[in-house]
């Protein structure tokens, strides 16, 4: 069986193209037939089908709000308003946000500003080379602060006696710090061995940290105590050594607050009782000071190298700027240790 191609009918003079010819070709032929040259026709078609749309140029950019007054840890949303040369709103443009001082305020890619410290800085929003500016003024609000960031405790395996220490909690900012809470998280061990309580819910307060060795085998355990306020939290890392000896160093009191005036008389010495909170005798006592921040303003000496003993603490200088200074005095002996938390408050003369 053979295949045959159907004959194609060609139009005569003046006749329109047949139905088998594409419609675009028919139009071209019709235009040519009316005297429009192919070159002019192609030029007209290219003009119609290739149209470049230029984006509207941004003539002005403003940040809203133009000024932010915040407390440290506050978070505020900024927006960038754009207009063209005629004052019409422009949308859909990518905005690049930046902070001139991230120690005062940080800004993310969406324009959310977080106050990170007291001071003033500028936030910028850049679009097509134009820059909008907003001012941020940050102040300290109430802020939780602990005298030390870490404590070390020792307990005897199998003992029902808890090892305890006290850490001062103060307001490191301005205003009144209310609503304090404390939570303890123990890491390791088959049961929770760490507890924390506050003497009051308003700063200043004392944080009492206790570690219970009962049920724990000999070893070193770690935990964290978190003190929370309305605006921030502060953590105290806890290291708990469980030993198999019954001789345990104990100090009383476990926390001190010392006050003085700038350039004034040095505070009187403070004495701490060092005893054995277990059985037997604790020998080889020594004392070491761990500072938080400025160092060298405190000395510690022991009356003897075995319990019972007296730990004498002396402030060595009053030539310090006003503020609160913290240190922890560790007393070690007999494979155990205890700590005294010290806060030195220096104020301006009356």
Describe the protein's architecture and organization.
The protein is mostly beta strands and 350 residues long. It has 4 domains: 20-48, no CATH class; 60-139, Immunoglobulin-like, CATH 2.60.40.1080; 144-244, Immunoglobulins (Immunoglobulin-like, Sandwich); 247-350, Sandwich (Immunoglobulin-like), CATH 2.60.40.10. Helices cover 7% and strands 49% of the residues. It contains 2 helices and 26 strands. The strands form 7 sheets. A 4-stranded mixed β-sheet has the order 2-10-9-6, with no helix packed on it. The longest helix has 12 residues, at 38-49. The chain is elongated, with a radius of gyration of 39 Å. It starts with 22 loop residues before the first helix and ends with a strand. The model is unreliable at 1-12 and 14-36 (pLDDT under 50).
Summary?
The protein is mostly beta strands. It has helices at residues 23-33, 38-49; strands spanning 60-64, 67-71, 75-77, 79-83, 89-90, 96-99, 105-107, 112-115, 119-127, 130-139, 144-146, 150-156, 162-171, 181-187, 194-198, 205-212, 219-228, 233-243, 249-252, 255-261, 270-276, 286-292, 298-302, 309-315, 323-333, 336-347. A hairpin with a 4-residue loop joins β17 (219-228) and β18.
What is the topological layout?
Elements: H1 23-33, H2 38-49, E1 60-64, E2 67-71, E3 75-77, E4 79-83, E5 89-90, E6 96-99, E7 105-107, E8 112-115, E9 119-127, E10 130-139, E11 144-146, E12 150-156, E13 162-171, E14 181-187, E15 194-198, E16 205-212, E17 219-228, E18 233-243, E19 249-252, E20 255-261, E21 270-276, E22 286-292, E23 298-302, E24 309-315, E25 323-333, E26 336-347
Parallel strand pairs: 2-10, 12-18, 20-26
Antiparallel strand pairs: 1-4, 3-8, 4-5, 6-9, 7-8, 9-10, 11-13, 13-16, 14-17, 15-16, 17-18, 19-21, 21-24, 22-25, 23-24, 25-26
């Amino acid at each position: 069986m053979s295949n045959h191609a159907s004959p194609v009918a060609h139009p005569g003079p003046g006749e329109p193209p047949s139905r088998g010819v594409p419609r675009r070709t028919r139009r071209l032929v019709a235009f040519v037939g009316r005297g429009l040259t192919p070159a002019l026709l192609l030029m007209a078609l290219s003009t119609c089908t290739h149209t470049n749309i230029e984006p509207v140029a941004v003539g002005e950019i403003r940040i809203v709000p133009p000024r932010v007054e915040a407390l440290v840890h506050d978070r505020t949303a900024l927006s960038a308003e754009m207009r063209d040369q005629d004052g019409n709103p422009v949308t859909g443009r990518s905005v690049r946000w930046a902070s001139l001082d991230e120690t005062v305020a940080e800004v993310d890619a969406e324009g959310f500003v977080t106050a990170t410290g007291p001071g003033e800085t500028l936030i910028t929003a850049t679009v097509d080379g134009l820059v909008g500016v907003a001012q941020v003024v940050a102040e300290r609000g109430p802020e939780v602060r602990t005298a030390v960031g870490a404590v070390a405790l020792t307990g005897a395996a199998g003992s029902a006696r808890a090892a305890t220490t006290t850490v001062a909690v103060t307001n490191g900012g301005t205003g009144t710090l209310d609503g304090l809470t404390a939570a303890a998280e123990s890491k390791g061990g088959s049961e929770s061995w760490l507890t924390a309580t506050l003497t009051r819910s308003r700063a200043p307060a004392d944080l009492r940290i206790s570690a219970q060795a009962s049920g724990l085998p000999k070893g070193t355990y770690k935990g964290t105590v978190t003190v929370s306020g309305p605006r921030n939290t502060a953590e105290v890392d806890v290291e708990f050594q469980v030993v198999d000896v019954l001789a345990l160093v104990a100090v009383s009191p476990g926390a001190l607050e010392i006050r003085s005036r700038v350039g004034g008389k040095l505070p009187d010495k403070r004495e701490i009782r060092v005893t054995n909170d277990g059985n037997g005798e604790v020998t080889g006592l020594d004392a070491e000071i761990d500072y938080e921040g400025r160092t060298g303003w405190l000395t510690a000496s022991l009356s003897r190298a075995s319990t019972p003993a007296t730990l004498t603490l002396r402030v060595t200088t009053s030539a310090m700027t006003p503020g609160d200074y913290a240190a922890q005095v560790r007393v070690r002996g007999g494979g155990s240790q205890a700590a005294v938390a010290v806060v030195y408050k220096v104020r301006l003369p009356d």
